[in-house]
Write a structure and sequence with these properties.
Serine Threonine Protein Phosphatase 5, Tetratricopeptide repeat, mainly alpha
């Protein structure tokens, strides 16, 4: 719903826009979103961000929506924002999800800019979310080739490796990709691999951890966070390392609380040696 004050700010923003003052229009709509949600405001603000060359802000805003598909206006704006950001890779993933052509044609950035993105990414010691999202501006050939080169680096950051694997899975690629998991060079086929949170063993372990801390809920977020780190480190080869989810969860809790991981002690030590202190 859009409140009376939000409607007033929408009207003010419309006047600003007609006068060519996009910055003032944006400021009014950002003010309108403080404290309460309004789809009308969000859609108008996304449009203004795109018009004002702030497409990254439009992307961040539309991605906050819990459902990007049910509402036609939201879906259309999401597709427009992908186009404005040159996020071809995400557009191709969207096409795989919906089975439909997008209402906007999404193009990657120029070949020269793609080379710059890849060089810049490789040179970074630490990668933030915006750095990673820039890879979605590559064409499919460059993205898959670059992803494979990163996955072949034994020291690549586990969060980057996890994101790349899941992006390849969302593209439903049928080629084999090589990837380092701990100290083992292994391979996987994205089209035959589930996203981490959809993997049965992941769900069972998270459920078992939740049950163990049902009487101590304040500790649960920390334990779930650590569990995600451990399971993310073993992805996309969870099944190679987890035989019995309940005993794995029990051993992990023991390791995190007392550094006694029982039958999984060596595995947990190996995983945690990979993380910076």
């Amino acid at each position: 719903m859009t409140s009376v004050s939000q409607k007033n700010l929408l009207k003010l923003a419309e006047e600003n826009k007609h006068k060519g003052d996009l910055a003032a229009a944006i400021q009014n709509l950002e003010e309108a979103l403080r404290g309460e949600h309004s789809l009308d405001v969000i859609l108008e603000l996304c449009d203004l961000y795109c018009a004002n060359k702030q497409e990254d802000q439009a992307y961040a805003l539309i991605k906050e929506e819990p459902d990007l598909f049910s509402n036609k206006q939201v879906y259309r704006m999401y597709c427009k924002v992908l186009k404005e950001n040159n996020f071809l890779i995400e557009a191709l993933q969207l096409k795989e999800i919906t089975g439909l052509e997008l209402p906007f044609k999404v193009q990657p950035v120029s070949e020269e800019k793609q080379q710059q993105i890849m060089q810049s990414f490789k040179a970074k010691k630490q990668v933030n979310q915006m750095d990673y999202e820039s890879l979605h501006k590559l064409n499919l050939v460059n993205f898959t080739t670059f992803a494979q080169s990163i996955l072949l680096e034994p020291i690549s950051e586990f969060a980057v490796r996890l994101s790349l694997c899941e992006d390849l899975i969302r593209l439903k690629l049928k080629d084999k990709f090589k990837v380092w998991v701990l100290d083992d060079l292994t391979e996987f086929i994205p089209a035959d691999t589930l996203l981490l949170e959809k993997a049965p063993k992941y769900k069972e372990i998270i459920s078992a951890i939740g049950a163990k801390f049902s009487h101590n809920p304040s500790q649960l977020p920390l334990m779930i966070g650590e569990t995600n780190l451990v399971l993310g480190s073993l992805y996309p080869k969870l099944d190679d390392y987890v035989d019995e989810p309940d005993s794995f969860a029990s051993d992990l809790v023991a390791y995190l609380q007392q550094r006694k991981g029982r039958t999984h002690q060596d595995l947990f030590e190996k995983i945690y040696r990979k993380f910076p202190n």
